[in-house]
Every structure is written in C-alpha cells, then in structure tokens.
Amino acid sequence: MTKINSNYLKLQGSYLFAHIAKQINAFLAKNPNADIIRLGIGDVTLPITKTVLDAMHSAVDEMGKKESFRGYGPEQGYDFLINTIIENDYTPRSIQFSKEEVFVSDGAKCDVGNIQELFSTDSIVAICDPVYPVYLDSNVMAGRTGEIKDNGYFDKIVYLPTNKENGFSPSLPDTNVNLIYLCSPNNPTGTALTKEELKKWIDYATKNKAIILYDAAYREYITDETLPKSIYEVEGAKKVAIEFNSFSKTAGFTGVRCAYTVVPKELEAYTDKGELYSVNKLWNRRQTTKFNGVPYIVQKAAEAVYSPQGKKETKELIEYYMTNAKIITDGLTNAGYEVYGGVNAPYIWWKLPAGIKSIDFLDILLEKCHVVGTPGSGFGPEGEGYFRLTAFGDRDRTIEAVKRITSTKFV
Amino acid sequence: MTKINSNYLKLQGSYLFAHIAKQINAFLAKNPNADIIRLGIGDVTLPITKTVLDAMHSAVDEMGKKESFRGYGPEQGYDFLINTIIENDYTPRSIQFSKEEVFVSDGAKCDVGNIQELFSTDSIVAICDPVYPVYLDSNVMAGRTGEIKDNGYFDKIVYLPTNKENGFSPSLPDTNVNLIYLCSPNNPTGTALTKEELKKWIDYATKNKAIILYDAAYREYITDETLPKSIYEVEGAKKVAIEFNSFSKTAGFTGVRCAYTVVPKELEAYTDKGELYSVNKLWNRRQTTKFNGVPYIVQKAAEAVYSPQGKKETKELIEYYMTNAKIITDGLTNAGYEVYGGVNAPYIWWKLPAGIKSIDFLDILLEKCHVVGTPGSGFGPEGEGYFRLTAFGDRDRTIEAVKRITSTKFV
User: Fold this and answer.
1) pLDDT of residue B22
2) B260 in the same domain as B140
3) Pick from A31, B97, B164, B225: CA 20 to 30 A from residue B192's CA?
4) Statement to judge: residues A229 and A298 lie in one domain
5) What's the mean pLDDT when you consider all of chain B?
6) What is the DSSP letter of B93?
7) How far apart are CA B118 and CA B122, in angstroms?
8) Which of chain B's residues have a Cβ under 8 Å away from the Cβ of A288?
9) What is the helix (H) or strand (E) element at residue A58, kind and residue range?
10) A5 to chain B: which residues are within 8 Å by CB?
C-alpha cells in the first residue's frame, strides 16, 4: 500500500493566487463585460527589452548550427553568466565570490522552495508574518510543522510579526530557531531592511548557529541608497546566509525564467555527529542530482541584462513601475488611506478601513471598482486588515484604478 | 544549531557523470593534444531543427511586444502545448487524458527527482539494477534508504536485477514494494519492455497497491512497432502509473529544456488513515508551490516539434542517431564482442571481456583509443562488467571510434 506524504494534507486548501484566480473567474462569469484592472499577482507587464531580445535571437541562431549548438550545460549555470553576475552584482559592492558560490536556476520560487531539503526535518523554522507563502508551504510539505491551528498559525513554526507597530521590521525571536526566512524588500509589506537591522539578524544567527535564507528578489526596486541590496554588504553574512535573487522583476523575466542563488563556501551547518559540513556542497549535490540547468538561450538573455545598454533598459523598466507605485501611494494617501511600501518595493501595503476582512475586500474591490488586489491574510494572519496592490500594471490602467478606488466609499 | 539533512552523507562521492568528467580532465591534462571521442554522457550533438528555431524566433518577437508579452504562465504549462501533447502522443494510441493530467516541466530529471516528495518517507522503493542513478539518489536524499553496504547496495532499497540472464527484463520482487521505478527503453541497457512485461508490472502494482514511476524519456527511439511507447497502452496503467517524457532526446532539447509528466486522475495513494487520495492533486500542489513553469519561448519550441514539418525533422534526428547505434552495434559484434541495446534505444550496452572492471575500463579505453564511455557499475552493482556507449555522437566520429575500438586488443 503506497502512502502519500501526509504533510501535504496540512496545507491550506489551495495556493493563495490560485484561490484569487478562482474568485476573479467567478466574478467574470457573472460580469462578462466588466473592465477589470489587475493589481493582484506581482507579474510584470512591460515587454522584454531590445538588448535582451537581440541576445535571445542570437542564442537561438547558435542553437541551430552544429558548431555552436549547446546541449547539456553545467547544472550550476554557464561561467559566462555566473562571472557576469559576480562582476556586476557583488564586486562593485566589495563582495568577493568564486564562481562555485553562485547557482543559476529557473526561478527564485524553485530555489526558495527547494532549499529546505538541505536541512534536517526537525529544524525550527522562523518566518515573517505576513510574507510570501512559499517559505511556509515548502516547510509544511517537508514536515517541519504541526497542524494549522484555529488562529491560522501552524504549530512548530516561529512567526515573526511584521507590522505597523514594529515598523514592518521583525523583532528577534525569543526562542532558538535554526532557519530564518527574511525577505527584503518584503513581499507583501514593501519594506526594505536597513544594514543595522540585517546586522541584528546576522548577529543572532552567528550566536545561535542559525542560517538566514535571504530573499532579495525585489532588491533592484530599492531607491534609498543607504539601504543594502545584498545581505553580504553586512559583515559576517557569508557565514550565516544564503541569498536568493531573480531576473523576474528586475528585467521582466517572469515568463523567461532565470534566477540565481548564492551559497557561500563559508556557510556550514552541523551533521548529526556535531561536525561542520559545507552547505554549498549540499546545494551543489541537490542541484546536480535533481536539476538540469537553465536553457542556454535564457542564460544568454540574462547575461545581456548586464550589458551597458541592458542596464539602461532595465533601469527604465523599474522606473516605470516605481512611478506607478508613487501614483498608487500618493493617490491613496491623499484620499485619506494609510499605505505602506511603494518606495523601495513595487508593492503597496494598504491598511483597510477598520472592520473589513481582507478576503472580503477582494470581493468588495472587484464588485465596486472592478480592481483586483491581494488579501493581506493570504500572506499570514498578521496580514489581516491589509491589502496588497502591485505597481506592475500599465500606467494608464494604474491611474484609472486609483481613480476608481479613491472615488469609492468602502464603508 | 542548524543541522543538515544527514541523508545526503549517505550518497556516493559525486554524481557519476561528474566523476567521469574529472577523469577525462585528468587525462586531458596529461595528454593535451589527444583527439578524444566522447560516447559517454547521453547528450545530443545535432543542432535544433529549422521548424523549432523558427518557432523560438517568433516567440522571442512576441515577448518583445506589449500586446503579446507573456509573464507568468500556468505552472503546469500552457494549454496550447498540453493539448498538442495529448493530441499527438496519446489520442492516436486511443489513450484519453484531460489537460489537468499533463504537466509540462523543464526536464524529466527534475520530475523524476522530485516525484518521490509526494510519498511517505517510509515507502519501500524498488529500482532496476543497473539504471539511471537519479531514482536511487533522490530517494537516498529523502531518507528512504539505510547506508550503502560493502557490496554497493543501499539498505532498504529493493533492487531488481536487470541482466543478461533475464534478458534485461526485471523479475517481480518477492517482497512487497510501494514505488517501482521502471525505465523503458532502459538507460543504460538499451532494452525496451514489451506490453506483456508491462502488464506483469501493472498487475503487480494493482494487486499490491503500488505505484509505477515509468520513465519513457527514450521512447521515440523504439523501432520495433510491437513495443509500447507509453505504459498507458496497457490496460490498467492509469490507476497505477506516472509517466515521464522528455523532448531532450527526441528533439535535441538537452540545452533547450522541456519535458512533461503524466499523472492520471485515476491514480490514488493512501493517507495515514487509510483513505484514498489523488496523486494528481499532490503533484499539482507540489508544482504550483515549488515551480514556476517553463519559459514561454521553450513551450512554443516544444509545440513546433509536433507540427508536420517538425515531426519530419525530429524523425531525421532520431534516424541519424539510430544509424550510429547500428554502426556501433555491428562493429562491435563483428569484432566478436557481446553487445545489447542499440535497436530500440540510443544506448549500446557492451559486455566487457571477463575480468575487466568497468571503472578501470574507462581509463583503458581513454588511454588506448581516446574514446570516452560510461562504466556500467556507475548505474548499479549489476552493471559491473558492462560499459555504455551512446549513439548521440557525430557520424564520422562514431565510425572512427568503432574503428579504434575494433582494432585494439584490450586483453
């Protein structure tokens, strides 16, 4: 008798975004002509830029000639891309990495979901609340949690409240934890951690022999130059942190699929016998066994993002979205709403009028404004009473959405 | 104190192909001018065909225009590709699937490695010996094995000897097993299972409530028309089997990255309470949580493989490689060697002269012929005394390799 991994049964019904899609479809079925504006899922809308397209066309041509055809590449990624990443994302910040420390993949979601495999199933996991659901879900699936309780919290998980009261910067846990997921700029609150705040976490991890899983997928949206774009800008991080990065939001690669993860050679964890073991070696083994690398064409596309013209185009993409963020933030603020984020992140974290549940507001906003957003409670219990809007929409549609919202009475 | 997943420590040193690469590099360092012919790793060498290239160029152009740009797609794959797969690979064989039963991914290696996550860690795993190492390694990592024993076998794994004595068709296990990995055509032995043999396994799985994980990545190399290309050609398979397929070897996609896995809705396994649960639902949850879909460009490329012209080109690729297979098989046979495979698979399974260990033969063949192959023992203890050659090389180089081998005395 084959038994399933019963941890899957602990998961909540369906993945947040799938649930939202279902709600929208139900609304559309009833209102087929509704002019819906989607500020829900954090998906980019501007096309891939010219420099990147040229690189892809050229790579496709290479694949068509015997002498330049590429079959299996290194699972970890081609040197040309890894070296380009190091030279552009780390060297200018005085951070040194060898090419064996950077792993190219098809998405930060995959790496963030798979990374927990490297660690013992009895590891104590700390996650911010609210936060991107994959950190929690992947650990539920692996059996690092108990059942979900009536209050919406999973047993055994250490939740780090990230709210208005602490300025959306989580406090250190008062118990000992092993794996700490940090996301900065945070999805969904839009808050980026300072160097001092990161230092606090690095010190905690160092002292408690914990490991920080640092999701920096939105780092290129940081506009405040005093804020770190990499956790490795802070001393001591190499010994305690893994960093996840992505081209999805930076260069509009959500449909192109490329990301990279840094696992420093200095990072170690303990065997059952209490001996130190290289986490870099574990990830390399995981990736070479269960992954076969990113398409050559896609890696050439990612390389092009770092060319002088590629950087210029990418900067324009980000500025476009951040102008949207300002339009939403200003619009809602001027209408008397309390909003957070939107300055160093493409997410606007909207405090709902008292008494409205965020899951209900999904329907209310759809019905009254034909605008889609994401209920805060989908990111964790502490997200209740909030709503996430994204800046990834079209300019005119974003302006229109703000107009609709600010001219509507919700209470 | 963060502890690692100590199951990783049970794994053998490095992944087989990484080890071989190291040996070759050591040889090359000593013999920098050696004219090496690589018949080791099963990687294709012919370029992507015109129809597929055209589809990729056109998809790249779509990504460059706002109105046709694609961001996140469905994690399971686009309908256009899923429907094309069903219409071409299953409908003509009178097998019906709905689109929710086919999952597009970036590689059969990933799916084959990840599928075990859906099942209880105390599942008893049966694997053919010898076979593609990922089945075993992914289960070692998940803790379904004990330590490796002196004889090269992992404790708790049920090995199914696949050898000359049983015609490379494994016998049923005499104990009860839960997960059965079958690979047909088999990598490395090159043997394809008949419908009768598959029926035997389906009956076993049905009776014992086991699940068959059927790797059909090489199915397009089957030339004997009486042999099944899909396990679902045999009645009862939908209730007990998952099938893995790939465009890697069919259409030369090893560097393009696309595959698909079929998880029938009829397939169920048991919860801890003994209730039946949909495995399709589990895989859907796994993929939506930890995977973000295949690049749009790659899915358009895969779709083009099924166009009339795409099919014609793909057939030519396969015929080219299978002619190589015949050249190797005939050459070695005429030289008095015992060889298997090469008729319904791109692999030739070469029985080495008595007394030569396959890992030693890697060096011998390199030294004497400057030809690279894969030691049989790398695929399991039962592979000892065998050597795998692949038909994926260039025609002239394959002829040259056979000439070198057949004109050399190894004992």
Assistant:
1) 82
2) yes
3) B97
4) yes
5) 96
6) G
7) 12
8) 15, 18
9) helix A50-63
10) 117-121, 282
Which of A306, A324, A353 is the last residue before a domain boundary? A306
Considering only the beta carbons, identify the residue of A107, A109, A271 that sits closest to B9. Answer: A271
Chain A nearest CA to B338, separation (Å): 30
Q: What is the rounded average pLDDT of the residues B260-271?
A: 98
CB contact under 8 A, B47 and A61: no
Is the CB of A295 less than 8 angstroms away from the CB of B295?
yes
pLDDT of residue B199: 98
- pLDDT value of position A138: 97
CB contact under 8 A, B3 and A178: yes
Which residue of chain A is at minimal alpha-carbon distance from B122?
Answer: A3
Contacts of A310 in chain B (CB under 8 A): none
pLDDT exceeds cutoff 90 at A136: yes
CATH number for A370: 3.90.1150.10
Q: Which one, of A186, A113, A22, lies nearest residue B289 by Cα?
A: A113
| Domain co-membership, B91 together with B200 | yes
Nearest CA in chain A to B48: A64
Task: Please give the Cα distance from A386 to A365 (Å, whole number).
Answer: 13
**Any alpha helices (H) in B259-307, and if so which ranges?**
279-290, 296-305
Residue B85 lies in a domain: yes
Q: Which chain B residues are Cβ-neighbours of A4 within 8 angstroms?
A: 118-120, 269-271, 277, 279, 282
Return the CATH number at A201: 3.40.640.10
Q: Tell which of A290, A306, A322 closes a domain.
A: A306
**What does pTM read for this prediction?**
0.97
pLDDT tens per residue, range A232-281: 999 999 999 999 999 999 999 999 999 999 999 999 999 999 999 999 99
Q: What is the pLDDT of residues B8-67, one digit of tens each?
A: 999 986 566 677 778 888 998 999 999 999 998 889 999 999 999 999 999 999 999 999
Across the interface, do A64 and B57 touch by the CB < 8 Å criterion? no
Flag whether pLDDT at B186 surpasses 70: yes
Both A227 and A138 in a single domain?
A: yes
Residues A284, A153 within the same domain:
yes
Which residue does chain B place closest to A249, by CA atoms?
Answer: B71
Domain match, B130 and B152 both = yes
Contact A297 B256 (CB under 8 A): yes
Cβ-Cβ pairs closer than 8 A, A with B, add up to 258
Q: Which residue(s) pair with B161 in the sheet?
A: B129
Model confidence pLDDT, tens digit, residues B108-146: 999 999 999 999 999 999 999 999 999 999 999 999 999
| Cβ–Cβ gap A56/B297 under 8 Å | yes
The residues, ordered by sequence, that sit 6+ positions from A128 with a Cβ below 8 Å of its Cβ are: A159, A160, A162, A170, A181, A182, A183, A186, A380
Report if residue A1 sits inside a domain: no
Q: Per-residue confidence at A13, pLDDT binned at 50, 70, 90?
A: low
Q: How far is A8 from chain B (nearest CA, A)?
A: 7
pLDDT tens digits for range B294-321:
999 999 999 999 999 999 999 999 999 9
**By CB neighbour count within 10 A (0-12 exposed, 13-18 middle, 19+ buried), where does A152 fall?**
middle
Q: Which of B1, B114, B254 is facing A270, going by the closest CB pair?
A: B1
Q: Looking at chain A, how many residues does it have?
A: 411
Look up the domain containing B257 and give its range.
53-307
- Chain B residues within 8 A of A250 when measuring between CB atoms: none
Contact at CB, B53 and A46, closer than 8 angstroms: no
In a domain, B411, yes or no: no
Query: Is B236 inside any structural domain?
Result: yes
Q: Is residue B377 located within the same domain as residue B342? A: yes
pLDDT tens digits, A21-79? 788 889 989 999 999 999 988 899 999 999 999 999 999 999 999 999 999 999 999 99
Query: What span, in angstroms and rounded, lies between the C-alpha atoms of A78 and A80?
Result: 5
Nearest chain A residue to B1 by CA: give it.
A209
Asked if the Cβ–Cβ distance from B110 to A65 is below 8 Å, we say: no
Q: State the pLDDT at residue A16.
A: 67
Domain count, chain B: 2
User: Taking the CB of residue B280, how many other CB atoms lie within 10 A of it?
Assistant: 21
A293 in the same domain as A239? yes
